[in-house]
Specification:
The protein has 280 residues and is of the alpha+beta class. It is built from seven helices and twelve strands. The chain folds into two domains: 162 residues, no CATH class; 92 residues, Rossmann fold. It has a three-stranded antiparallel β-sheet. Pfam families: DENN, uDENN. This is DENN domain containing 3. Keywords: Guanine-nucleotide releasing factor.
């Protein structure tokens, strides 16, 4: 049921609450390469199950590391990050005694994952079509996520998929000053609100808004994963000051298609390849 939104909206305490590294496990990649080498396969193409490889939460560096980085820029690459990694079997400490070489990197710390983030479903949402392995590099792509918990609280995320190592940013101290909003009663939006008008005819936009206001079961289809969240979020912005109070899942992976069988009202999105399966 749609109801009026709270007029007082405030920014979260931080711009980045969680940074996760996801991908295919190294063991799966290594075994896949061995099979391809033995069989003489030149064009390697397969789908692997993604998993969470590492998680970083603020503060990304400590105060001591920040002071050392300011005094000596060469130590930026040696700062200790707070992370949560998958625990693996480690060799006994006696095996490392007396071995020459550089000191080992510090062990990751155990940290609490912010609420509203489900690490079990996060890999499926970041890679809805699975992890694709190919011999030729593909273009990098970006899509967006909206995670909703049982209380209706939404957590927004950005997924950047890279098919080659790329230096994107440094996790160091950064101060950002946001100017005051001209209209404090209006929500904060960073969307191209004209995007639905580029994807649908005006009469279709009105028809979709009518279905949303009458609380119908709605599924968006697109061949571009990035468009699903952007378009659905635009329609959510069109409703202001009303809010959609039913299940809201802009991206459904292959393993989540049974969500559309829910008997209640919902607004979801999935890839165009599943149109025939969902329409049944």
């Amino acid at each position: 049921m749609a109801e009026a939104a709270s007029p007082h909206l405030s920014l979260p305490s931080g711009l980045l609450e969680l940074c996760a590294l996801l991908g295919a496990p190294r063991d799966s990649l290594r075994s896949l390469e061995q099979v391809a080498y033995k069989k003489g396969v030149k064009h390697l193409s397969a789908l692997l199950d993604p998993e969470v490889l590492s998680i970083f939460v603020p503060p990304f560096i400590s105060k001591e590391d920040s002071q050392m980085a300011g005094a000596n820029c060469g130590t930026l690459g040696k700062t200790r990050m707070r992370s949560l990694r998958k625990k693996r079997e480690k060799p006994r400490p006696e095996q490392w005694k007396g071995l020459p070489g550089p000191p080992r990197a510090p062990e990751p710390e155990d940290v609490a994952v912010p609420g509203g983030v489900d690490l079990l479903t996060l890999p499926q949402l970041c890679f809805p079509g699975g992890v694709c392995v190919a011999t030729e590099p593909k273009e990098d792509c970006v899509h967006f996520l909206v995670l909703t918990d049982v209380c209706g609280n939404r957590t927004y995320g950005v997924v950047a998929q890279y098919y080659r190592p790329l230096h994107v940013f440094n996790m160091k101290s950064l101060q950002i000053v946001l100017p005051a909003r001209a209209d404090p009663e209006s929500p904060i939006l960073d969307l191209d609100l004209h995007l639905p008008l580029l994807c649908f005819r005006p009469e279709k936009v009105l028809q979709i808004l009518t279905c949303i206001l009458t609380e119908q079961r709605i599924v968006f289809f697109s061949s571009d994963w990035a468009l699903l969240t952007l378009v659905t979020e635009c329609f959510m912005a069109y409703l202001y000051p009303l809010q959609w109070q039913h299940p809201f899942v802009p991206i459904l992976s292959d393993q989540m298609l049974d969500f559309v069988m829910a008997p209640t009202s919902f607004l979801m999105g999935c890839h165009l390849d599943h149109f025939e399966e969902v329409s049944k």
